[in-house]
Amino acid sequence: ETTLTQSPAFLSATPGDKVSISCKASQDIDDDVNWYQQKPGEAALFIIQEATTLVPGISPRFSGSGYGTDFTLTINNIESDDAAYYFCLQHDNFPWTFGQGTTVEIK
Amino acid sequence: QVQLVQSGAEVKKPGASVKVSCKASGYTFTSYYIHWVRQAPGQGLEWVGIINPSDATTNYARRFQGRVTMTRDTSTNTVYMDLISLTYEDTAVYYCARDPSSSHRITYAYGDSFNRDWFFDLWGRGTLVTVSS
């Protein structure tokens, strides 16, 4: 079973900042990582697929990078609306597993 | 409107069972698998299982085997997750999420490499299940 270690658990940013969230896999999972955004009381939103591909309709301020075991979600020019919980998912091998999540606060 | 609408919050006693529903609308019900995922307080997300609404095939996470049953009703486009023998550790928000179906099986074994990409592209808002005496 692949373990995803996500960090940091919490980050606080100022509007306009660039922030990065890390997701490290316990084994090589190629580019089989997706990223999601979840706001309280709302359904999770699919934002990045296959590590680097922006899901249609998602702001280009979001980007993903990485391959193998190290993956990163970057939010450029962060806005107040980006305050949310972000998590990664691996879909390389069964069972699907998730990172522990990152709560992003905007000051 | 394309959405997954889940049933309301539940409070159950230890040892009881709970049945959570997930009603799909706005798309062809049998063209997408449904995953169930849960998040306990202060914890990350955990995959519970998957059902193919087309043929009712299921696959469950090892730790839930024997306690969880996923079913579907194609007449109402609804998927159900039944969890029995509840303990305090089952207190969590339970989510359903869809994934495009394919000709590939979903009866994977632990460690199997997937032979396709997965998306979890649409989620429900979650159902809080509280286990309390």
Notes on the protein architecture:
The complex is a heterodimer of chains A (107) and B (133). Chain A contains no helices and 11 strands. Chain A starts with a strand and ends with a strand. In chain A, strands 2, 4, 5, 6, 9, 10 and 11 form a 7-stranded mixed beta sheet that branches. A 4-stranded antiparallel beta sheet of chain A has the order 1-3-8-7, with no helix packed on it. Chain A has 107 residues and is an all-beta fold. Chain B is an all-beta fold and 133 residues long. The radius of gyration of chain B is 14 Å and the shape is globular. Chain B has strands spanning 3-6, 10-12, 18-25, 32-39, 45-51, 58-60, 68-73, 78-83, 92-100, 122-123, 127-131. The N and C termini of chain B lie far apart (39 Å). Chain B is 0% helix and 46% strand. The chains are: A mainly beta (107), B mainly beta (133). Chain A binds chain B through residues 1, 6, 32, 34, 36, 38, 41-46, 49-50, 55, 87, 89, 91-101, and chain B through 3-4, 35, 37, 43-47, 61-62, 95, 97, 108-114, 117-126.
Please describe the structure with a list of short key phrases separated by commas or semicolons.
heterodimer; A: 11 strands; B: 133 residues; mainly beta; seven-stranded mixed β-sheet; four-stranded antiparallel β-sheet; 46% strand; globular
Layout of helices and strands:
The complex is a heterodimer of chains A (107) and B (133).
Chain A: E1 4-7, E2 10-13, E3 19-25, E4 33-38, E5 45-49, E6 53-54, E7 62-67, E8 70-75, E9 84-90, E10 97-98, E11 102-106
Parallel strand pairs in A: 2-11
Antiparallel strand pairs in A: 1-3, 3-8, 4-5, 4-9, 5-6, 7-8, 9-10, 9-11
Chain B: E1 3-6, E2 10-12, E3 18-25, E4 32-39, E5 45-51, E6 58-60, E7 68-73, E8 78-83, E9 92-100, E10 122-123, E11 127-131
Parallel strand pairs in B: 2-11
Antiparallel strand pairs in B: 1-3, 3-8, 4-5, 4-9, 5-6, 7-8, 9-10, 9-11
